[in-house]
Amino acid sequence: MQTTFYPMRLVEQGALQLIQAQDMPAGTVRYLEETLAIKQIGCRDTITVRAPDATEAAFFKLADDGRIAVFEIFQTGFDERGRPMRLTVSVYPTDRNQFAINVGQVPDEVAEPRSITEAGVPPAETAELGGSG
Hints:
By secondary structure, the chain is an alpha+beta fold. 22% of the residues lie in helices and 26% in strands. It has 4 helices and 4 strands, in the order βααβαββα. The chain has helices spanning 8-12, 28-36, 54-60, 123-130; strands at residues 2-5, 40-50, 70-79, 84-93. A 4-stranded antiparallel beta sheet has the order 1-4-3-2, with no helix packed on it. Strand 3 (70-79) and strand 4 (84-93) form a beta hairpin. It starts with a strand and ends with a helix.
């Protein structure tokens, strides 16, 4: 499940398609660049794990007792001036999703590991990556 929010100032500046319920095949980031010359230069993701609400449990066909949590990702995109230009909220069930986060240049031929140990991280370091909390 995914919802994206945009500052009203973008609509006021002429990005009128943002308030219409329609698909943008090229994507909204490209639309904003073409329409307003606003370029997204970075983004920040905040990831939390929580129990699903009733709508999410029904959508993902999860048991309504909360035993399967969901990931909730808040991704804020920033323009060249450092201003937020979008907030995308995505929800995924934890029982069937895994995320690989690449930072910098990662070769295309790198195989996607299914676990930390397959990625070559020794078990002693695995505990440190998981945190203590």
